[in-house]
Amino acid sequence: MSATHSPHTNSLIHETSPYLLQHAHNPVDWFPWSAEALAKAKAEDKPILLSIGYSACHWCHVMEHESFENPEIAGVMNRLFINIKVDREERPDLDHIYMQAVQQMTGQGGWPLNVFLTPEGIPFYGGTYFPPEGRYGRPGFVQVLESVAAAYRQRKDELLKQGHQLVEEMGDFLKAEPSQNSFTRPVLDKLAQQVVRQIDPYNGGFGAAPKFPQAMTLMFLARYIHRTGDETAGKLLRLTLDKMAGGGMYDQIGGGFCRYSTDAEWLVPHFEKMLYDNALLSRLYLEAWLLTGDTFYKDVCVDILEYVLREMTSPEGGFYSTQDADSEGVEGKFFVWSKQEFDSVIGHEDAALAAEYFDISAGGNWEHANIPNLRKLPAQFAREHGIDPGQFARKAKEWRCKLFGAREKRIKPGRDEKILTAWNGMMMSSFAQAGRLLGEPRYTEAARKNAEFILGNLRVPDTGRLWRNHKDGRSTLNAYLEDYALVIEGLVELHQATYDEAWITHAAQFARIVQEHFADKDKGGYFFTSQDHERLIQRPKEFDDNATPCGNSVMAFALQKLALLAGNPHFGFSADQSLRLVRDLVGRSPLFFGYWLCAAEFHASKPREIVLAGDRAQIAPFEQILRGQFAPFCVVAAAPGKLPLLEGKEPVGGQGTAYVCESFACQEPVTDVKKFATLLEKA
């Protein structure tokens, strides 16, 4: 029920989150998470219904339409509960705590997340999507509401006891003890082989349907393959990359990946597009190109980045969060084609060949419509049809341009334009790396502009600390560990793309803030929230990498690089402590520790520091060598400068000079680019 149809307005009307504003005219008396809502629950001794979702979530929209817009169901909710709506992307702390609670209670989780709490915030019952009436093997929402409220009235003490026990069990994971051992290459080899055995040998990826693009785990495999030359792992990595990029989960017309595939073959996506997926996957395909030399992977990376610049970038340089799965109330409508419309756009001469290439048919490949996908990648398709690959690439580009132009006339899916610090830091890293390794100044400039946006709009002027969220000119919410960690990483990558030492200075300042406000001084690692954050039922400490890397794994990776570039061994010591915390956990399920394993590979590799000395013209040939090689165990800086790493590094004989150092000890400087390329092997 939209604002034009309902006179009702609730407390969400004052929020900036598009997801919360979507619910501001529900007949439910929603509150945002606030002291006011919690106090009201205590004063009226009512349980809390906490409903968590996000704007691009299809089933969140379904439950809103079926239940939250229904005046009768809303009346039951208002009578029996204090109702709180939370945007999980704004409040990952609440999402983490209560998702863990529901997973422990039910064995599964997801969004929308609906959790019932005591007025003190203790969870005692929960689930995900509830239909308005019982179906799909799920109880009806009204039945759930009335049963939970009755249980709270009649068995309050029992529920409180169970809830406190649940919270205590949730805290057990925080008790991880640091290992006496660090990661070594033999340990990492075993973990990589464990991952390889879990890859689907027919369609790539991990598991059956639904399939998620586990970019961080694949980045770890790329490092392992680079280091060992494991041919089996290499073939399975390429199979996965090819299937993902050829499938319907990848937008073949406009670039960018959707959230996940609903089937095992990567054909049918859940059509929402998330900034973080595209940040991680653009980086994965960039690294895959460097590892293999396959230009198809470079093209995928470029298409993703162009999509982000076109669709997901604000005029000020911030990156928006998500695009919805739905348009005009129908999931995927924007992205699919009928055979008739496809043929009319392509034109009679090429229609048959283009339809074969994009798998377009009269019967359709999904719900009587067509999701463009590539059954055969461009080079193979051209070869089998006796077409010159270069000529076919130009032809395919022409088809895509025609289809894109026609699609742009459709009503686009909604876009969540809030700007989240963590996701922006992630995207900044990807643009900075691509700018440096592709030699594309536009990408470097996008990263620089984003860094300036963050420092100008998401940094608190008085304290230098960060906000979590920016929307409509307002920055809100204290930043979490992941916000600081991913901005630090982005700034480190931006320094390597520009050699501007200001970015290292800012990164080190944020690292010191993390040490002061987030560090677990007893066991190492970092809490998800700062020590002066709102007091919740638990102070989370994340270890597993899920859809995004956890703050602890990013810190473990970024601090190693920052230690080398800023000349601060304490940062490296902190990273080592963090890695020891998960050393004995990873073996249970390495798929959930992908970014940790990338950090561990860097740690075990004895990373190299590369210093290029001379003016930009003199060092350009060395930069060109770096662009052509996968060198994941290096950091790069340029002299002259004030960083400790640069001390004494000068051009030799007035020529551009490269210094390759390891553990702060340098080999003989080289002025010959071929010798430099040799030194880079296995770097």
From TrEMBL:
InterPro entries: 6-hairpin_glycosidase_sf (IPR008928), 6hp_glycosidase-like_sf (IPR012341), Ssp411 (IPR024705), Ssp411-like_TRX (IPR004879), Thioredoxin-like_sf (IPR036249). Residues 9-170 form the Spermatogenesis-associated protein 20-like TRX domain. Pfam families: Thioredox_DsbH. PANTHER family: SPERMATOGENESIS-ASSOCIATED PROTEIN 20 (PTHR42899:SF1). This is Thioredoxin domain-containing protein. It comes from Geitlerinema calcuttense NRMC-F 0142. The lineage of its organism: Bacteria, Bacillati, Cyanobacteriota, Cyanophyceae, Geitlerinematales.
